[in-house]
Amino acid sequence: MKSTHTLIALSWVLQIVAAAILLQTLFFKFTAAPESVYIFTTLHAEPWGRIGSGVAELVASLLLLVPATAALGAALAVAVIAGAIASHLAILGIEVQGDGGLLFGLAVVVLVAGVGILLIRRCELPVVGIWLRANSLVTGGQLSRPWSLADPRRRGKSSERPDANGLRLSSMCGAAAQPDRRGRPLDLGLTRLAPPRGRLRDHGQLN
To answer: Which residues contact 100 (CB under 8 A, 6 or more apart)?
Structure first.
C-alpha cells in the first residue's frame, strides 16, 4: 500500500499547485487588469477570450480540488494551458511586458502538473478510463481474464512476468477503479496475483 499512498499524495500536491496557480490569475482576468487586457488585445480576443478563459480556469480549479473530478479538472487545465503556451510561443513571446517570463513559467508548471495528474488518475477519465480498466490484465488482486497466466492454453504468452514474491507490475487502472471492501483504493503499483487453481475449471470465479 506504500506506493498507493505515495501516488495519492503526489496527485494531491500537483492538484493543489495547479489549482493555486489557476485561481490566482482569475483576479487579473476578471478585474480587467492592464496586463491581462494587453495579452488578449494582442491575441484579438478581448474581452471574450479573457473572460472565457477565466471561467474555464475557474471550473478546472474547482474540479481539481474534488477527488472525484480531479482527472477531469486536470484534462481541462491541460487543454486551457496548452492554448496559453501556444499563444506565448507563436504571438506573445516568452516575456510579456517585462515580466521576465513569469506567466510563461507558471503556465509550464500547470501543464506539467496537469499531465502528472492525468497519468496518476487516468483510469478516472470517463471514456479513456473505461477502456483502460477493461484492458487491465490484473484487477483487484485477481485475474481479470480467463486466459491469463494461469490458463495453460495461454501460458508463456503474457508479456508481464511475476517476480519472486508473486508480484506483477500492472496497469494502475485496476487498482484505481477497484476499491477494496472497506472502500479504500488498492495498490496502484503492484498487484498480487491470485494463486493458480489447477486448470481453473470455473473461470467465473476469476472474473
So the answer is: none
